[in-house]
Design goal:
The complex is a heterodimer of chains A (110) and B (121). By secondary structure, chain A is mostly beta strands. Chain A is 0% helix and 45% strand. Chain B has no helices and eleven strands. The chains are: A mainly beta (110), B mainly beta (121).
Chain lengths: 110, 121
Amino acid sequence: QSVLTQPPSASGTPGQRVTISCSGSTSNIGKNYVYWYQQLPATAPKVLIYRNNERPSGVPDRFSGSKSGSSASLAISGLRSEDEADYYCATWDDSLSGVIFGGGTKLTVL
Amino acid sequence: QVRLVQSGADVRKPGASVRISCKASGYTFVSYSITWVRQAPGQGLEWMGWVSVNTGETKYAQKLQGRVTMSTDRSTNTAYLELRRLRSDDTALYFCARGHASYDIWAVHYWGQGTLVTVSS
């Protein structure tokens, strides 16, 4: 059971907008930045969003992040087949004094 | 470009130890900590801790305290993860990773290719 709660699955059709949520608490998301990682099958994770809503160089602006209170969200607009992957949120937890990941959300493009 | 190249897959018996290496290139090794993350088969990501290449300071996940040691060799730009008293639930893909100048100290951007460790009798 992860400290950060994500829906185990999400889906959408090409061109749609999909949102993935990440729920935490005041000791983690409530006080620290949130990062979002995309993991394609059999590959290392890749950062999509850092510090809540910043995109690293090379990440399309179809990907956006937001945070409100102790929750965060990743939005993917203009869904494409290559977006089919696992998505993880991550942040620092002050109580655990360590990094925590959400359980991951498997995105299916129908 | 930044590269993190890890050692190959390994199979160990329960109770044994394993040591994984992570050779860095393409940047000044002492400038960034090395973080270790693992992923059990079909499961999510689990943060294991980090080692400061500059100071040698370490920070480990609470659940691994006492079984894990992270270290670096600045002469070869290589980081090491040692996990002792292996159990079957330590079977996982182990990643080394490095941060980015724009990120929080605990966050990572560059990843190694992963090393599969299988614990089986």
